[in-house]
Amino acid sequence: MKNGLLVLLVLFCSIALFAQTPPQSRSTTGLRGTVKSAKGEALPYAAVIVKGTSIGTITNAEGRYEIGLAPGRYEIVFQFLGFQSMQKAVEVGNEFVTLDVTLQEQAIRLAEVQTRGGQEDPAYSIMRRAIAKSRFHQLQIDRFKARVYTKSSFTVLDLPNAAEWMFKKQLKEAEKEANFKVGRPILNEQIAEVSFQQPNTYRQRIVANRNSTGDFATPSQYYNVSFYSPTVANVVSPLSPKAFAYYRFEYEGTFSEQGVEINKIRVIPRQYGEGVFRGVIYIIENTWAIHSLQLETISAQGFTVNTRFLYSPVKSVWVPVNQRFDVNGTFFGVKFTGQFVRNQTFNEFVVNPAFVEDVRVVDEKKDQPAVTLSNRDIKGRQFDEMVKKQKEFSTKNLKQLIKEYEKQEKEERKKKKEDVAVMRDDSLVIDSLATKRSNTFWDSLRSVPLTTAESVSYKKSDSLKIVREIGKIKTDSTGRRDTTKRRSPNKFSPGQLLGGYTWNLNKKTALVYTSPLMQVEYNTVEGYAVEGGLQLRYRPRRDSTLRRFGSIPQRQWTIGGTGRYQFGPNKLVGYGTAQYQHRFSRIGLSGGRYVFQFNPDNPISPALNTLTTTFFEQNFLKIYQKDYATLTASVSPFDQRITLSGSLEYAERTELFNFREDPRPFLRVDVRGRSYTPNRPTNIELANTGFPVHQAVVLNLTASARLGATQYYIRNGQRYARRANDSPLLTLNYRKGISGLAGSDVDYDFVRATLSHSFETGIRSRLNYQLSAGTFLNDKKLYFPDFNHFAGNEFFFQQGDVVSTFRMLPYYQFSTGRNYLEGHVLAEFRKFLLTQITLVRLTGLKENVFVHYLRTPALKNYTEVGYGLDGLIPQVLPVFRIEVISQFQDLKYQRLGFRIGTTLKFGR
């Protein structure tokens, strides 16, 4: 009896929860039925549109549809890609009317020109005009409001046998706790009110959201995309201005529908794989707008993505009313499928006044327009006035006109004090009742009926919710509290000393401990060395306006210390730091006794040197000791587009030597013909790189700036960088050794300029370069630590930045105290040699070619030319690479080298 009361109580609570939603009555009149092919097969996600309105729906995966309509007479249009559309008149009375339809496959007729040999395929002329008018179609819509229904369905189809056996218990628990089961769809439904305003304002209010289990990934990168744009989720659109470089097109015929002629065009990628589509696109004759499309691509993860868009005229503008994405693939042996459907119904639609007039486009490669405009004819002219005066334009002239229109619009926005750097302004509001909507509410607004499997998934989910509520009520009804002891996350335990730990002392203060056992190194100067430290961090509060830069604190104080024990010489060294940060400004003070590499950019990481010293008897790490105090400061104004930094350091510098003549690490592996080298580097400009103990005061100033503006988008009032500013980066550096100050024994002036850039040259293809030049204006007194050093490498394992790191240059042999010229170029290719083979390319393998150049007074025209393969273990460890390098000196071949490595950066 008690249990029965509990169940009734849970049901009552559920009803009360649903009752919190506004009363929504399911429509009692309308239309329902199924859409099938002539073979009797259900046509999933076919469009069902009420002619003359923006009201519509789509069928579900079983071909069933349902649409609520007030009593009256309607013309209903049924559409499915590849089938003839059908229009039916229907009278809706005081109840639902059942209307089942059968669609016939589309009859395609070929144009006569297709059969004539030696002529260009007519698809190219059609696509040239469609591409020329693509931006026109985007700008046609001035603003709209719509109700958007989206449904995401994800199903695991199969698991590896080993996984089913090993995780049998966990899978049963997942079914009970999370409604997960192989073959059962995981659902997410959402209803939103969406509005758009040119040029870039989107507003979205989530009215209802429902899940059959926890949240899961949806293809949000594909939502709100436009195939009139150059790219669609990083895939080149068939209507991109660069489309002919990536696609071939074939004309497959024409058919008539809704009073218009529609051309069927086969889209054939020149090399299929990630970044391109293949399939069919339908282009409307004369207007050159998209009628529908069915395209397939490969995602970066290797999954197949099928895209189907169906457009419908709204105030004579063809807009996508139904969007469907099917994702299929296998991940670590788990086979899955996903269906993502989006349906939008417009309740307000305003056409841009400047684009009301119809514009005819002439392909000048086939026919010459009656009038051809020059740049002078177009500059400063109003688009709408030009169109009213002249109805026909060449593809080139139309592109120029639209470009001029956008330029004028941008100037108008500037005059209105609008931020033209903002590419998109989005806002998302979630209704407080969005997750609490009743089944009645969903039945009244759901655009796509649930399939049988989806209904079962929701029923299972609702049952699990009831079971959880019962369990919660049972626990609460005992009146007992959970007395299980839970250790405070800040409570001390011995294990924290071994692995390190961060104790949050309060909401603003944290103590960070780094265990010395986590950083154990070996080199020939220190022998074994361990390093650990403590840092106290205080953050009063965060500035929400800085979230776009990774949750940067508005203010932060840190103070800490690091200790390093050297087992070889039995010495303890260390340093302390204190730093204050306010937004993008930072000032810090550090000092102590510590060891540093001669090259401050750390060309070899201590961890890698431990490996080479222990197992290969090669001690590449060369270090010296500094007793120092350094004051640093930096600031990044203009949203980090410019960075200014500087430091002033006093140091007593001491040369170090191997702690014994024949170091012997515990795991040493003797290699025939090799022996450990002294810690003193060899250099072509200095007969002896050693130096006495001396004092040095060094001023170091650096300014860097991006040479292009940063673009932004706004989300819920917060300003975010649209992407990292990838314009060229110019860096200027001035370093001065100040003689006589605090006993300083150095006197030099060094200047350097560096220009670097990385930009796309095609699909998964980039060109990266870094050019640098520097000279010592004054070299009266400097020691080897003051030389300019280069990012060299002498080990078969390559690390560091793949663009700016030499592959075979010795670490210090060619360091210079005079002047230098340095250049690095790396070109990454989607298709080059091996990747000409489609199967190889689809694995994600990437080829690159690189050149490294260095010239100093003592080293003339040192050059490395190499070829590399990235992604040796696709989708698992894609950062690993293999390279082959040829080394040249004054254009004379020296030797061949091989490197394996990673694109990741290491170093201290």
Description:
By secondary structure, the chain is an alpha+beta fold. It is built from 15 helices and 44 strands. The protein has a 19-stranded mixed sheet that branches. It has a 13-stranded mixed sheet with strand order 14-15-16-17-18-19-20-9-10-11-23-34-35.
Radius of gyration: 34 Å
- In round numbers, the mean pLDDT is 84
Strand composition percent: 35-45%
Low-pLDDT parts are 1-26, 215-221, 481-486, 543-551
> Tell me about the biggest sheet?
19 strands, mixed
Strand segment tally: 44
Percent helix range: 10-25%
Separate helix tally: 15
Secondary-structure-derived class: alpha+beta
Spatial separation of the terminal alpha carbons: 69 Å
Shape, principal axes of CA atoms: elongated
Coiled coil: 388-418
Pfam families: CarbopepD_reg_2, DUF5686
Protein name: Carboxypeptidase-like regulatory domain-containing protein
Organism: Fibrisoma limi BUZ 3
